[in-house]
Design a protein that fits this description.
Layout lengths: L6 E6 L3 H13 L3 E7 L3 H11 L2 E3 L12 E4 L3 H12 L11 E2 L7 H8 L3
Parallel strand pairs: 1-2, 1-4, 2-3, 4-5
Helix pairs in contact: 3-4
Length: about 120
């Protein structure tokens, strides 16, 4: 029994965390399509897109109107909340199951609650 529809994943941040933990594991999963790679260093996004067959972009805002099922945020800590919140607004009805792969850390948990319309 095969996978009916692959989960389209965008990885924002193609540095050590993105390439070392996230991208490699997604690539091993037959139910995942690595569709988008974003990094402010174009060569990083380009390399991952070439290697995995996805599309490279250099500003995460370019992803906000794309057909993406899950966003994996692998950037510096100071960008986790803004990127995640911008993507959260794409899915206003997602409630607790928002398709953004980033832990809710205590130092910006309030921001996530505010963005989702809950405490």
């Amino acid at each position: 029994m095969g996978i009916e529809k692959k989960l389209k994943v965008a990885v924002v941040g193609c540095g050590n965390i993105g390439t070392g933990a996230h991208i490699g594991n997604y690539a091993k999963n037959e139910g995942v399509e690595l569709a988008w790679f974003c990094d402010i260093i174009p060569e990083r996004a380009d390399e991952m897109a070439e290697k995995h067959g996805g599309i490279a972009v250099y500003d995460y805002h370019e992803l906000l109107d794309k057909d993406i099922d899950l966003v994996s945020v692998c950037t510096h800590n100071d960008m986790h909340a803004p990127i995640s919140i911008d993507h959260l607004h794409r899915f206003p009805a997602c409630g607790e199951g928002c398709p953004v792969r980033k832990a809710r850390r205590a130092h910006f948990a309030g921001s996530f609650g505010d963005a989702a319309g809950r405490p």
